[in-house]
Amino acid sequence: MPDMSASASLAMTQLATFAKEVDEDKVTPGVLGFIVFAVMALAVWALMKSMNKHMGKVAFTEAEEEPKADAAPAADADKG
Q: Which residues cross the membrane (predicted)?
């Protein structure tokens, strides 16, 4: 790790104290993994916000139905 700056090296040593042994050959997601995860999280947030906006436009109440033509004469016949 000769290319690391002093502050990055100090940060790594402080973070490495939590681990018993740091394996140099271990692959971790790193910054790229965080960026991909953050972009996916923002995409899900935007989709949910859009869905909420579209669901607000939907009218869930049913329109009143007009009386059927077949039922009206039968009701009049009972009255007269």
A: 29-48
Question: Three-state SS for 26?
Answer: coil
Residue with tokens 């996916």: 40
Query: By the 8 A CB rule, do 22 and 16 touch?
Result: yes
CA distance 47 to 70: 47
Q: What is the pTM of this model?
A: 0.45
Residue-wise pLDDT tens digits, 16-25: 565 556 677 7
Task: Reply yes or no on whether the pLDDT at 69 is more than 90.
Answer: no
Residue pair 9/1 in contact by the 8 Å Cβ criterion? yes
Domains of the chain, residue spans = 30-57
